[in-house]
């Protein structure tokens, strides 16, 4: 019999009549049944009209039961703390940083384990929490990404410690694998190195610094690094105004003008894509030309425009070459079309500052939503944000490059 209790999202290992869209077992069972719950209810109504048995309806796959449409939006988690960036990983696991511009929190790096649940990851002991910073603890992380070799990469801006560090962890065990400290000439004092793109094949991580606009390439084996800066593509565009709900947004007492921020990588790891938060162009450069041993002039000469973009805090590039952006001004997600113009994928008032957007595998983009423009760094006063802060996901389908 179809009852409210039979449709609840249940912990892993507990019987549920709902089919599972993610591999089992998974420590994140709630993602598995969010869309199925809705699909089952819709399909149950259809079964009455067409005489299909409820047992057959419950046995249908997600695609059979109810086809998703591009831009379909779902709440994955509602949290009392601001997620910074979010990273889906293999096996349905989901990780997030806690945004350092938000209120002090007991953790800086978390795994989301339920609709309203999270845990410090990989442990509480490895994090600053609300205590004092130290070399052996995570301090102020923001960007993170899971690679396809079972590792989670985290860029730690070290706002309290005064050092920028790149961490990697084994996702299965939580074991720390690497901690690379960036030298002062690569991440100088006052840097805000906050987004990253990982090349797990050739052993490079590419970083974006918004405070002193620049791109950084780090060799994950040797720790050797190079910084590229000073180019117009890295700077904020004065015509790219940040306005939310018709209100101009201030940052640290002046109209928001933020340089290079979102950064992604092509599937073959040969091309780095990037753009300014307050920017209207999406650029590309050969990844090899960001590495040490290349002159700034050679790097600059190779930069090309891919297309337009909205004012955005995050971007994702899928394996088939599609580009997606958060649209801060319009509470949405955009997709670049074949002509190089951004087109709306979804608009929703719940996307109240869609910060990061990440794609791992499958048909969904994962989005952190954190009301960042309501923090004191933007308001100049009190924190005007109101929980819950959300992690959401938007359906993009398998697709092909537009």
Keywords:
402 residues; Neuraminidase; 2 domains; 4-stranded antiparallel β-sheet; 5 helices; 28 strands; disordered N terminus
Helix % is 10-25%
Poorly predicted regions: 1-65
Write down the oligomeric state.
single chain
- Give the amount of beta strand, in percent: 35-45%
Q: Give the beta-strand count.
A: 28
Query: What is the CA-based Rg, rounded?
Result: 21 Å
**CATH fold description of the largest domain:** Neuraminidase
Number of domains: 2
Mean pLDDT over the full residue set: 87
Assigned CATH superfamily of the largest domain: TolB, C-terminal domain
Q: Distance between the terminal alpha carbons, to the nearest Å?
A: 44 Å
Shape: globular
Number of H/I helices: 5
User: What's the story with the biggest beta sheet?
Assistant: 4 strands, antiparallel
Query: Strand arrangement, largest sheet?
Result: 1-28-27-26
What CATH architecture label of the largest domain applies? 6 Propeller
CATH class of the largest domain: Mainly Beta
Question: Structural class given helices, strands, pairing?
Answer: mainly beta
Q: Can you offer a commentary on this structure?
A:
The protein has 402 residues and is mainly beta. It has two domains: 4-65, no CATH class; 74-395, 6 Propeller (Neuraminidase), CATH 2.120.10. Helix content is 11%, strand content 36%. The protein is built from five helices and 28 strands. The protein has helices at residues 29-50, 54-59, 62-65, 296-302, 376-379; strands at 73-79, 83-88, 94-98, 109-114, 117-120, 141-146, 151-156, 165-170, 176-181, 193-199, 204-209, 214-219, 225-229, 243-244, 247-248, 250-251, 254-255, 260-265, 271-276, 281-286, 304-308, 315-317, 323-327, 332-336, 342-347, 354-358, 364-369, 389-395. It has a four-stranded antiparallel β-sheet with strand order 1-28-27-26. A hairpin with a 4-residue loop joins strand 10 (193-199) and strand 11 (204-209). The chain is globular and about 50 Å long.
């Amino acid at each position: 019999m179809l009852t409210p209790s039979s449709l609840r999202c249940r912990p892993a290992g507990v019987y549920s009549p709902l089919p599972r869209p993610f591999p089992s077992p998974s420590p994140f069972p709630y993602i598995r049944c969010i869309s199925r719950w809705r699909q089952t209810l819709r399909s149950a109504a259809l079964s009455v009209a067409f005489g299909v048995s409820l047992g057959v309806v419950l046995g249908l796959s997600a695609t059979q039961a109810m086809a998703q449409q591009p831009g379909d939006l779902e709440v994955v988690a509602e949290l009392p703390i601001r997620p910074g960036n979010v990273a889906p990983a293999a096996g349905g696991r989901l990780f997030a940083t806690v945004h350092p511009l938000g209120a002090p929190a007991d953790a800086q790096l978390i795994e989301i384990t339920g609709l309203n649940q999270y845990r410090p990851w990989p442990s509480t002991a490895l994090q600053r929490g609300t205590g004092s910073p130290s070399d052996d603890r995570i301090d102020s992380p923001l960007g993170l990404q899971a690679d396809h070799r079972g590792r989670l990469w985290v860029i730690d801006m070290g706002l309290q410690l005064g050092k920028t560090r790149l961490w990697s962890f084994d996702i299965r065990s939580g074991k720390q694998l690497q901690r690379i400290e960036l030298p002062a000439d690569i991440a100088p004092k006052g840097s805000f190195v906050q987004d990253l793109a990982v090349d797990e094949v050739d052993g490079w991580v590419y970083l974006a610094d918004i405070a002193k606009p620049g791109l950084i390439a780090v060799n994950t084996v040797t720790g050797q690094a190079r910084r590229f800066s000073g180019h117009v593509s890295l700077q904020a565009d004065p015509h790219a105004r940040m306005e939310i709900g018709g209100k101009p947004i201030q940052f640290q007492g002046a109209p928001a003008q933020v340089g290079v921020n979102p950064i992604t990588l092509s599937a073959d790891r040969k091309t780095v894509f990037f753009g300014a938060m307050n920017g209207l162009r999406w650029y590309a450069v050969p990844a090899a030309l960001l590495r040490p041993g290349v002159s700034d002039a050679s790097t600059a000469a190779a930069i090309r425009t891919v297309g337009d973009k909205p004012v955005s805090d995050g971007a994702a590039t899928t394996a088939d070459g599609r580009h997606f952006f958060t649209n801060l001004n319009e509470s949405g997600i955009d997709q670049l079309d074949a002509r190089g113009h951004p087109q709306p994928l979804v608009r929703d008032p719940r996307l109240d500052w869609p910060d990061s957007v990440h794609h791992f595998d499958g048909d969904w983009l994962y989005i952190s939503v954190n009301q960042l423009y309501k923090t004191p760094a933007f308001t100049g006063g009190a924190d005007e944000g109101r929980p819950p802060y959300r992690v959401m996901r938007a359906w993009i389908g398998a697709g092909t490059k537009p």
